[in-house]
């Protein structure tokens, strides 16, 4: 395990270099990308099983003591989210190979290597036990995603990429400042040590640090009122790119929020987090309802769903945090999938505008099913994974007697359903507005995309089927998150 | 063909249900599949008496509906495969619902029926009205689903179990809240006033769906919920008044609706609202006799209402309309349909010798047995509702088959697949009366399961001249008179007010959403940045409470002070004053140079060199890139410039404050000595910074190297795409 954990970070980065070297050798490049992503996902699965059985894995890189060097820590929280994320990237890569044969394709010689860098960055963010390395991970993710967003050089992409990169760079700068504050006040950036030293600070400084990092990670997570970069930039990218972003980027922010704020025992921030959670849910879902374009609707939903995860954190109870963990695990593949289906809709009509689509359920019933399952899951309908995640959060809210956020969560889930119905009515029902449907993609490409999406659906259904063990693991993860002394002991011994 | 195949599964489960009902085995078949034990989510099924009775309805009528749909759609219709699949999915979901023995199992299938109902209502999705009706139905029932979710969470928490079997009475405020939520959920599903508005719209669905979901089965789910949770929640203060309130209003408002419409399907739909209201009144009242009457009504209603829908559907298909004011002479042209309708309608009106009569008789007796206000209210609902029911039944039958001065309507050929199922159901209404003992043995155990006191009751074939019977006679006489009078004098067809309100509400939500989003997501990056900066300033406020002035000193050496002034000055000049892009770039460069000066003062010449190099490259890069842009920044308004200045100063202040606070009372110090020693001993290097970069924190370095490489790639890709675009243009 001590080899596997660093390999999950460094492996994709090395493979990215290889894939880049082989950029003109299409098959080799694809093979490197696919094999690496598969390996990382498999590694994450092994990690989950191992951590679940025999506790967290701590790796001191270069053998340096945590006080001096960097540690990687794979606990249950990290491993679970990593598995969900890497499996999702794998599905997207398969999809993108299919989509390449269509006019919407992102250029393949860059996408493979950049996806690998992104994966490496995401792994690093989940696995690092060091706040500065988390910053580096954010940089990796930011730069690779920015290039993925803009590499086609369409003017709309570059323009909307601007909001994305400027706001995120600002957040990175704030992160850097935050690191300075942390280092000045505690003399360390190691998370385990921070979990001991931050609570010893005077209360104003403590609260200030908590809020400061809430802003930093909140921007990354697209929480209210810092989400504006997301809906402007996401819909402009090629589908596969947006799909990966939707599944991963904001979730790294949420992950870091949960990690940092539980580790440093910021329970006092609970009410503020809950207010932000409620506002994020509401504004996100209203944004989604206001849109008339599949990709834009889905983009706003990302924000709304972030609110649910924040709700779990804001409760600061084991059940709440566990709900947030499960929600993360469910959300990553589900959201990505919806974007993939959105891409196939775009593929069908040449646009994702609701007014220019219609009658797809009759023409491609399979596509209807592929959309309906993750859409119902997103809206929290049973028996899909979203239902279990939502139920766990609402239950936690009722237990904690936070009635207001429970009501908001319920109302938002009704509104979520409304917006999914809007897509369904616009795209799948009604009349096809085109006089003569033209085929924009070849049957083979469709086949590959459909089967990649289908496989991913099976993946999300697995999340629902295995919700029992997953919930137990989320609960265990939450227990150790809310009692960070165990984490510290494990890292520092 | 698909439809015929699809009829097989319900046929099988009908047989099973009959086996359970008539078999003598003591234990009800059950199945228990765990799902998420930590959240008490499990699939628990038990086919007890009530479940078996419902199964008989769901599957028995299901089989007939599949046969009927075969005739309804004809051999050429498109999309029957999709229809059959969805209908079968509904049938399965409905069975899951009635077999559920855990609140969460119930909930899962409850929602599944809402979704399948949505798909079936919108089956003719090219029709905009059908789409709108489907959306309305889903939003109302799914909204009720959320109320149910909250209610069940509270209930399960209070009761300490999720099993319906083990649930004891729950009280207190929490119980009251749960009761209210559950009743709202039941009201949405069973189309109770004011949530009934989705049901008339749902008549946009193909008639087999109306007969199946929207009269015989799905809409009974709310009634079933009230029956199942009555034992647990019946003792709360909320349960009886709210439940009876919903039911009473619906019994009357539904019947009045049925009297006013001329579309036969709508008459039946409004009638369903009324009948369901009656069942909810009886179940909420909760006495043994009332529960017994309610369960009998569930059975009787399913049989006669499904038959009536089927007849109306047949008329619709064969005559091309189902408007009672447009039809004429069908009594002689469609004699079988007329007979079926008259028998089923009579059962609905409570006329002997039919099943509906005995059920209504039981309901009247139940009301008579109550005391005080309850007797008055329930009696009013039962008697008043029944009078109106008779009235709209008479009006419907007269309208469909009665005399008319218009020329007889032309009708198409007979469709046996449509006639046969409805005829069978009409025979059922008669046989139910003939074999009342058997019916009793179906109904009583089901009622006992809800309310043990129902044990002593049974349906009477001939009650004798009792008060109840006299009331019954009076009801039929009064109702017929009203119906005949109303038929002669048509009331204006009401506009669907409630449905309009819901649709306008939904559209209102959409326009509020557009308004809010337009305000929040306006697309201006500078405003986003300002919002973000202000958030940071607020976030830094707590730092102000813990600044230790004694911990702050101005500088280690005065040179730092000089450089700081340069840095701040250059920054202010650049951000506040510079109007040309080149000036801004150079200003940024001078900030960077001054910072490298700070490194020199701190004794890190290699860092200073690196910083200088980086700054030079950046300035050169800027200058090169500026060639493509205008020289000056676009001009900004004075107010906006001032805001920018204020925000910048505040952010700077916030950072300074945070640093001061962080340095005031540190809880740990950097391990500088350890690091210095370790760098030499373990790292094998005398330059601490180098050892940190290449060994201690080598992973960070690797990461940043990759960042640079990717950035370079990105620039390359952008220039390449720019070039290829130019070539395209050329």
In terms of topology, how is this protein built?
The complex is a heterodimer of chains A (493) and B (730).
Chain A (H helix, E strand, L loop, with lengths): L3 H18 L4 H29 L2 E4 L10 E4 L1 H24 L8 H20 L3 H20 L4 H32 L4 H7 L5 H19 L7 H5 L5 H25 L6 H21 L3 H22 L2 H32 L10 H4 L1 H14 L6 H15 L3 H26 L14 H23 L1 H16 L2 H8 L1
Antiparallel strand pairs in A: 1-2
Chain B lengths: L1 H5 L1 H15 L7 E7 L4 E6 L2 H25 L6 H20 L3 H19 L6 H32 L12 H18 L8 H4 L5 H10 L3 H14 L5 H22 L3 H22 L2 H32 L10 H4 L1 H15 L5 H14 L3 H30 L14 H19 L1 H15 L16 H22 L8 H24 L4 H16 L17 H20 L3 H22 L2 H22 L11 H27 L7 H10 L6 H9 L1 H32 L1
Antiparallel strand pairs in B: 1-2
Helix pairs in contact in B: 2-3, 3-4, 3-9, 3-13, 3-18, 3-19, 4-5, 5-6, 6-7, 7-10, 7-11, 9-13, 10-12, 11-12, 11-17, 12-13, 12-17, 13-15, 13-16, 13-18, 13-19, 15-17, 15-18, 16-17, 16-20, 17-20, 18-19, 22-26, 23-24, 24-25, 27-28, 28-29
């Amino acid at each position: 395990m001590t080899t596997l954990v660093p390999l999950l970070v460094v492996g994709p980065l090395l493979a990215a270099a290889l894939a880049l070297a082989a950029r003109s050798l299409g098959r080799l490049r694809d093979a490197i990308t696919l094999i690496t992503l598969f390996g990382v996902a498999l590694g994450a699965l092994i990690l989950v099983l191992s951590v679940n059985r025999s506790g967290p894995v701590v790796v001191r890189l270069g053998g340096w003591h945590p006080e001096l060097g960097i540690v990687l820590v794979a606990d249950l929280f990290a491993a679970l989210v990593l598995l969900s994320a890497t499996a999702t990237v794998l599905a997207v890569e398969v999809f993108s190979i299919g989509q390449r044969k269509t006019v919407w394709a992102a250029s393949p010689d860059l996408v493979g290597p950049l996806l690998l860098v992104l994966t490496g960055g995401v792994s690093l963010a989940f696995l690092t036990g060091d706040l500065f390395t988390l910053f580096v991970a954010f940089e990796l993710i930011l730069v690779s995603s920015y290039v993925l967003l803009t590499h086609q050089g369409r003017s709309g992409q570059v323009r909307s990429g601007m909001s994305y990169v400027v706001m995120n760079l600002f957040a990175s700068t704030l992160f850097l400042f935050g690191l300075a504050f942390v280092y000045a006040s505690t003399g360390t950036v190691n998370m385990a040590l921070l979990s001991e030293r931050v609570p010893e600070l005077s209360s104003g400084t403590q609260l200030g640090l908590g809020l400061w990092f809430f802003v930093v990670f909140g921007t990354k997570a697209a929480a209210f009122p810092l989400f504006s970069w997301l809906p402007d930039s996401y819909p402009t990218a090629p589908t596969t790119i947006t799909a990966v972003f939707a599944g991963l980027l904001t979730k790294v922010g949420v992950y870091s929020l949960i990690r940092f704020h539980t580790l440093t025992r910021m329970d006092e921030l609970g009410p503020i987090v809950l207010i932000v959670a409620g506002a994020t849910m509401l504004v996100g879902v209203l944004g989604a309802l206001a849109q008339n374009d599949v990709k834009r609707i889905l983009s706003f939903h990302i924000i709304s769903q972030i609110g649910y995860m924040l709700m779990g954190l804001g409760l600061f109870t084991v059940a709440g945090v566990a709900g947030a963990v499960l929600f993360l695990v469910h959300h990553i593949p589900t959201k990505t999938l919806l974007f993939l289906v959105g891409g196939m809709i775009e593929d069908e009509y040449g646009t994702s505008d609701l007014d220019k689509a219609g009658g797809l359920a009759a023409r491609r019933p399979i596509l209807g099913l592929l959309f309906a399952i993750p859409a119902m899951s997103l809206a929290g309908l049973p028996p899909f994974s979203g239902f279990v995640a939502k139920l766990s959060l609402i239950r936690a809210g009722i237990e904690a007697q936070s009635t207001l956020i429970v009501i908001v969560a319920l109302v938002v889930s009704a509104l979520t359903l409304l917006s999914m119905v809007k897509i369904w009515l616009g795209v799948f029902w009604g009349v096809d507005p085109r006089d003569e449907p033209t085929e924009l993609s070849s049957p083979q490409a469709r086949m590959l995309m459909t089967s990649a999406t289908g496989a991913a659906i099976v993946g999300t259904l697995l999340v629902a089927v295995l919700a029992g063990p997953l919930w137990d693991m989320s609960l265990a993860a939450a227990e150790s998150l809310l009692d960070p002394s165990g984490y510290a002991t494990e890292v520092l011994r | 063909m698909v439809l015929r195949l699809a009829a097989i599964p319900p046929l099988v489960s009908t047989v099973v249900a009959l086996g359970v009902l008539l078999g003598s085995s003591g234990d009800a078949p059950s199945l228990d599949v765990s799902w998420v034990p930590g959240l008490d989510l499990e699939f628990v099924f038990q086919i007890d008496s009530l479940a078996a009775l419902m199964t008989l309805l769901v599957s028995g009528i299901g089989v007939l509906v599949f046969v009927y749909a075969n005739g309804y759609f004809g051999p050429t219709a498109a999309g029957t495969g999709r229809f059959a699949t969805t209908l079968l999915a509904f049938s399965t979901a409905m069975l899951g619902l009635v077999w559920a023995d855990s609140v969460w199992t119930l909930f899962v299938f409850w929602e599944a029926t809402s979704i399948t109902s949505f798909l079936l209502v919108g089956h003719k999705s090219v029709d905009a009205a059908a789409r709108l009706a489907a959306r309305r139905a889903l939003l109302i029932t799914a909204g009720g689903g959320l109320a149910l979710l909250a209610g069940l969470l509270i209930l399960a928490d209070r009761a300490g179990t999720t099993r319906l079997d083990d649930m004891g009475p729950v009280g207190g405020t929490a119980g009251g809240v749960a009761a209210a939520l559950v009743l709202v959920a039941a009201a949405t599903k069973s189309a109770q006033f004011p949530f009934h508005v989705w049901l008339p719209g749902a008549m946009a669905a193909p008639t087999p769906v109306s007969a199946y979901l929207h009269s015989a089965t799905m809409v009974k789910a709310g009634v079933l919920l009230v029956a199942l949770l009555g034992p647990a929640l019946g003792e709360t203060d909320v349960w009886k008044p709210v439940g009876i309130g919903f039911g009473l209003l619906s019994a009357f408002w539904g019947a009045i609706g049925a009297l006013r419409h001329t579309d036969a399907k709508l008459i039946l739909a409004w009638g369903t609202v009324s009948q369901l209201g009656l069942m909810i009144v009886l179940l909420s009242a909760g006495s043994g006799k009332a529960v017994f009457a309610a369960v009998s009504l569930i059975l009787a209603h399913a049989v006669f209402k499904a038959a009536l829908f089927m007849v109306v559907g047949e008329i619709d298909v064969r005559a091309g309309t189902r408007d009672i004011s447009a039809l004429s002479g069908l009594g002689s042209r469609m004699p079988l349909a007329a007979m079926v309708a008259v028998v089923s309608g009579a059962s609905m009106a409570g006329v002997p010798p039919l099943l509906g009569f005995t059920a209504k008789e039981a309901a009247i007796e139940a009301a008579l047995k109550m005391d005080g206000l309850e007797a008055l209210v329930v009696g009013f609902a039962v008697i008043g509702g029944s009078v109106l029911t008779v009235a709209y039944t008479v009006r419907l039958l007269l309208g469909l088959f009665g005399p008319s001065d218009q020329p007889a309507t032309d009708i198409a050929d007979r469709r046996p697949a449509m006639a046969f199922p409805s005829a069978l159901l009409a025979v059922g209404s008669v046989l139910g009366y003939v074999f009342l003992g058997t019916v009793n043995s179906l109904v009583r155990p089901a009622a006992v399961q809800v309310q043990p006191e129902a044990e002593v009751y049974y349906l009477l074939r001939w009650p004798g001249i009792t008060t109840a019977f006299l009331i019954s006679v009076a009801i039929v006489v009064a109702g017929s008179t009203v119906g005949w009078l109303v038929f002669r004098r048509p009331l204006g067809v009401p506009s669907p007010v409630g449905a309009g309100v819901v649709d306008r509400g939904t559209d209102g939500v959409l326009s509020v959403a557009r308004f809010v989003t337009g305000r929040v997501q306006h697309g201006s990056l500078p405003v986003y940045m300002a919002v973000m900066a202000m958030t940071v300033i607020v976030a830094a406020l707590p730092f102000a409470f813990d600044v230790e002035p004694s911990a702050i000193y101005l500088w280690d050496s005065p040179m730092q002070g000089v450089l700081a002034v340069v840095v701040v000055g250059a920054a202010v000049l650049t951000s506040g004053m510079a109007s040309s892009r080149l000036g801004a770039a150079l200003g940024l460069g001078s900030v960077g140079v001054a910072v490298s000066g700070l490194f020199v003062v701190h004794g890190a010449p290699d860092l200073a060199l690196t910083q200088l190099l980086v700054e030079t490259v950046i300035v050169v890069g800027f200058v090169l890139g500026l060639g493509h842009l205008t020289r000056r920044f676009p001009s900004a308004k004075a107010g906006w410039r001032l805001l920018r200045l204020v925000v910048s100063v505040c952010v700077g202040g916030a950072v300074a404050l945070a640093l001061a606070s962080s340095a005031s009372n540190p809880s740990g110090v950097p391990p500088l000595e350890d690091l210095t020693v370790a760098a030499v001993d373990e790292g094998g290097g005398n330059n601490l910074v180098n050892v940190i970069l290449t060994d201690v924190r080598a992973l960070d370095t690797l990461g940043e190297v990759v960042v640079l490489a990717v950035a370079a790639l990105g620039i390359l890709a952008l220039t390449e795409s720019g070039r290829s675009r130019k070539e395209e243009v050329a």
